[in-house]
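In response to reviewer comment 3 from the previous cycle, which asked for concrete evidence that the modeling workflow produces usable outputs, we include below a single protein chain processed end to end. The sequence was submitted unchanged, and the resulting structure tokens are shown without manual editing.
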Amino acid sequence: MMIAEDVLAGGGLISHDESVLTWFVDHRTNWMINVARVVSTLGGFVPLLCVGVALGLWLWWRGWHFAFAIAPVVSLLLAGLGSAVAKAVVGRARPPISVHETHVSSPAFPSGHATDAAGFFLAAAFVLAITVAHHRRTQLVFTAIGILFAGLVGLSRLVLAVHWLSDVVAGWALGIAIAITIVVVLWYAATRRRNPNQHPPASRHTKA
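The workflow returned the following structure tokens.
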């Protein structure tokens, strides 16, 4: 991963980390900090896991293949594992504690929140686009919402000054890669035994 190489060797995106951190610290307001805390909390691993389980149960109840139902949670779990391993390997220090607006303890790179959010929201968006969206416009809306939510969670970590820009960008990249991989693999698992000319498994609640 190129950003990881930049962090270890210097240069590249990390050359902008200090200036971006300074910009956020200088321009954030109290209401921005409060909103960022809420977004960061809701975009944490446990809340996303709860939403993922609820979404999976709903999709399963609607009659969709189990592979579609579990995709967002699987993507979230792998995103969490991937960021934890990367943090342990890279061991990058966070921005100075004097500018932090929330408590953190783990290494900085990559942002676990950005990785988890991208992995979960993009996987959920792709799954919903495959299952319940019947028009291309609706599929694009689901995807755009997934990108927006993942982006907001990552930005909240910059407002709270607990991550460098490169931490967040790397988290987004890792989460997106995991989401795409998981959805493609599980989509194949759900459809490989069907006639290729058939549509994806229909909901049991779909009217004939």
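The helical segments are 2-9, 17-27, 30-42, 45-61, 66-90, 112-131, 136-159, 165-191. We consider this sufficient to address the reviewer's concern, and the full set will be provided in the supplementary archive.
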